[in-house]
Amino acid sequence: MAIDPKRIKLGRRGLFAGGGALALSAFLDAPASAAEMPPNPLEKPGWILDRHDEFDGGLDPDLWITNYLESRTPAWRSEARYHFRNNALVLRIDDDQPTYYSDNPMKVSSIQTGQRTGLHKDNRFDHSIPTDMRYTPRHGYFEIRAKSSARSGFHTAFWMIGRQDTWEQRGELDIMEHAGIHGRSRFNYNLFPWSDPNLSNDTQSIGVGFDMTTEMHIYAVEWNSTQMKLYIDNQLRHTINQSLGYPAVFLLGAYENAGWTGDVDPDDPRPKEFVVDYFRAYKPGDGGDDPQSGRTYKLRNASTGRYLDADADGAVILESSSVYDDQHWTLTESEPGYWTIDNVRSGRGNLDTQPGGEVIWNDGWVGDDSLWAIEPVSGGFRIGNKYGGRGYLYGSGSSVGWNTGATDANTVWELERQ
Known about the structure:
The chain has helices at 5-8, 24-27, 75-78, and strands at 47-53, 82-85, 88-93, 107-112, 114-115, 132-133, 140-147, 154-162, 172-179, 186-192, 202-207, 217-223, 228-232, 235-240, 248-256, 272-284, 296-301, 307-310, 316-319, 329-335, 338-343, 351-354, 358-361, 372-377, 380-385, 393-396, 399-402, 412-417. The chain is mostly beta strands. A hairpin with a 4-residue loop joins strand 12 and strand 13 (228-232).
């Protein structure tokens, strides 16, 4: 069996750190099984490494907060229990660990990349805390290499939640949520909207074909403006055709007695553990699916499935996809926060608004009526006109127009780079 170089390095902070000292015997793991997935190389073709923690003896303090949603409960109850073994993070639930609430049996050991008062769902309030967003990206590729546990009343999770700059930004994606009730080779991949009106529930039970509790494997999500794709050991396993349209906080956690994971067997000894070899975050090497000034796109209406098309005599319509350049539009950030949307067909100019809700293409004129704000939302982008009183670009049937500010699905557009 090949030697995993990550397993034998000492780590920049020595052998012991974090939530308590360990005996040397506890530091030594049994050899990895032949079925384990080896670590990926740090560099990923087509992606730029954005942030990572290899958990080589300590936590990156610029990345992780070690109190789980602290504003809900006293800080000492929310503090994670953890240590390091073979240069991997071990989140654990201990016998002497306090419950998360004084009147509830749940115990939690979780680390997260952001924190604010009232973050995530409607829940209890104990005290206010400073907003501390250490890493909250929007879109990218995010992976862990981990070993879970199938214990009574226990679950582990690699998940993300909206950073909640507004009340709607509270969608949740559980990239890997594994409970003892699932058995050793199955987990849940969940999308929950909470207060995000652009999302709907999507829960998938994913069978993996290996023992998640004895082997290290890689769990990842590729997140763009329209989709969230689950990867297991670098293989695409499931796609959710929805997306959080705002920055997100990432969490790694071990949870006992969470309320939906079954009863805790009193004879099932603690500690219960979640072992994470590394966390890695990548951004697209080409700028991703965010609008790029000077690039050409097709604009697909999310509600109708049709494409923005420049027709004759200034008309703009919706049509089925074609290979012709009348569906190609070049986006240029003409001034901060505002873009021109210029049709590529020779002689056809910028997307323009006219009185009465009409949208046309003009002869190249640039003014407030032909400047657009492009706002990320779940499922794509909303395109709003700068001219006072003229709202969002929308599509209905084969028609295109502007509204006065309604934000239904007809105003969501997907940008397909050409």
